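look at this stuff:

>
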Amino acid sequence: MAAKYGFHPESLLEYAEAAEYYLYKATPPVAEGFIEVIESAIADVVANPTRWAVVDEPEIRRYVIKRYPYIVYYRWESQTDSVTIYAVMHCSREPGYWRHRLPGSTAPE
């Protein structure tokens, strides 16, 4: 059985903004392809959340998207069998910009 999942609000916003970018700056088929690969990545993660290695604390895992320059950062909570997606990050962004989204972190200055 697949894990439940949810987005941090800021990660959902960046996902939507990226899809919108591809829709208006590229073409609708490119935007559709982007959405398909992100949704496929999410399906892979919730089907087998421990498949990807922990790359950061606290238990943050990384799924690298192959057709687009994006990475999905997430954490699986074994106690609740749920995945939280903390970032849908374009690879040109500063690494770790999203870390303030983690529980217990403070907002960026």
Summary: The helical segments are 9-25, 28-47. The beta strands are 4-7, 54-56, 60-64, 70-77, 82-90. The first strand starts at residue 4 and ends at 7. The domain at 4-91 is CATH 3.30.2310.20 (YaeB-like fold).
